[in-house]
Design goal:
2 copies of one chain form a homodimer.
Chain A lengths: L5 H14 L4 H8 L3 H8 L7 H10 L2 E7 L10 H12 L4
Helix pairs in contact in A: 2-3, 2-4
Chain A binds a DNA duplex (30 and 30 nucleotides) through helix 3.
Chain lengths: ~90, ~90
DNA sequence: TTCTTTTGTCTTCGTTCGTTGACACACTAG
DNA sequence: CTAGTGTGTCAACGAACGAAGACAAAAGAA
């Protein structure tokens, strides 16, 4: 599943936790975080630490993946122009 | 690509940045973070904020994905027993 | 319906985050 | 070789993080 925002991530964590029939307290204990932190994450807390997030999804039997996006599908983003500019800059390299 | 640790994530960010021929400064500006933060992330900083991480990989033309792991491939982890226990707990639900 | 469990929210506190600016070191181009 | 560029590291600082504990509200069970 693609995760465009921390909100989506939080929703997935909650959904998965429910599927595993775990309470927030139980999962928090397994991960080694406070229950309050997990509540916040599930609500999409943008400042959660990446390592705690990683541990949480691992405890949920999930894995983090990063994939290249299809540039054609991102016509509304500015990354394409940045990539092209970077490509031009690096092109004359000998 | 699977990302088991923040170290791996950092290495991927650096690798991708190089492929795009961007400097740390340029990428940091695009993302809206300090260069020092990006340096730390590329070195695998576990406490980096998830939202900043998300923005960084987005700027690199990458997307975050989360997938269910294959339980059989995780025989050395304790998550399998946790999942089974949770399954048992929820089994008698009517 | 009542009772129990789960979740949401809050305060307090010590710790650490991200930023800024500077400097050292490594790398690259000519 | 030198000059310029890129990266690594550091200290200081204000902001905010995560933990702990408590209570309220919502959800679930009987």
């Amino acid at each position: 599943m693609n995760i465009p925002s921390v909100k989506d991530l939080g929703a997935l964590v909650r959904d998965r936790r429910h599927k595993l029939r775990m309470t927030q307290q139980a999962l928090a204990e397994k991960v080694g975080v406070s229950r309050a932190w997990l509540v916040a994450l599930e609500q999409g807390k943008p400042s959660a630490q990446i390592d705690l997030v990683l541990r949480t999804i691992r405890e949920l039997g999930l894995s983090l993946r990063i994939e290249a996006e299809n540039p054609a599908a991102r016509s509304h983003e500015i990354d394409l122009s940045a990539i092209l500019q970077a490509g031009k800059k690096g092109a004359p390299k000998k």
